[in-house]
Design goal:
By secondary structure, the protein is mostly helical. The chain is 69% helix and 2% strand. The protein contains seven helices and two strands; from the N terminus they run αββαααααα. It binds flavin-adenine dinucleotide (FAD).
Length: 194
């Protein structure tokens, strides 16, 4: 649907023999190392979504100041302003969470201040909230643009397809983030399924 600049697909390796010197990390810990990479990438994905949402709001604000309906710019209507207020408030809250999480990750790697699971919870909170916030912003701004929003001429349709990839998958699906958040909030004994 989106992110056409990179291809997405799967691959399988069979009968692979790799000399010891090329091994990364400890033996039999590959899964954990991979997951650690996914974890760290969650804050980067979230930052991308915050940037995309920010740009969509800017494009939207330019548009509502320009577009006239019923004798005045759309920006003058409180119905539109309340929509913007809602987006702006959520945006600041989630952006602050993303900054805090990036700071925690830095501290974990550089000073060992936070443990991996503590940071994981925040990474999952970012990854759960930021893509959905971005998608919500794109949807609302598209609505502001009326029929023009529903065309490929409008720059937002491409962004909307792009941010949706982060809601669906890329660094873990939404429900998986919820599993991590509830597990690290409630405790593992309460969230174990088997
Ligand atoms: C654009 C894009 C790029 C990607 N790039 C990469 C990449 O570079 N490298 C890589 O390894 N992967 C990549 N992925 C894969 C991505 O990580 C997966 O798509 C994602 O983890 C979801 O897995 P799945 O597609 O198998 O869906 P599933 O795991 O089948 O999930 C389907 C649905 O079921 C829900 N679900 C699954 N398990 C549970 C559960 N236990 N409880 C409740 N609900 C559940 C999910 O929330 C989701 O809604 C990419 C995906 C996309 C869309």
């Amino acid at each position: 649907m989106g992110r056409m600049a990179i291809s997405t697909g799967g691959f399988k390796m069979t009968d692979v023999n790799m000399p010891e010197e090329y091994r990364l990390g400890e033996e039999n810990r590959g899964f954990y190392h991979t997951m650690e990479g996914f974890d760290a990438a969650r804050v980067l994905v979230s930052a991308s979504c915050i940037g995309a949402a920010q740009r969509a709001m800017e494009i939207g604000m330019d548009y509502i100041k320009e577009r006239q309906a019923f004798g005045q710019p759309l920006a003058k209507y409180q119905g539109i302003q309340f929509d913007l207020a809602d987006m702006a408030a959520h945006h600041e809250a989630i952006k602050t969470l993303v900054y805090k999480t990036a700071w925690m990750l830095d501290k974990k790697y550089k000073e060992g201040t936070f443990n991996a699971l503590e940071v994981s919870k925040y990474l999952s909170m970012c990854k759960y909230l930021a893509p959905h916030h971005a998608l919500d912003v794109f949807r609302r701004v598209l609505y502001w643009m009326g029929a023009y929003g529903y065309t490929k001429e409008c720059p937002l349709e491409m962004g909307m397809r792009g941010v949706m990839s982060y809601c669906i998958g890329a660094e873990g699906a939404a429900n998986i983030q919820k599993i991590v958040i509830s597990r690290e909030t409630l405790g593992r004994d309460w969230t174990r399924t088997r």
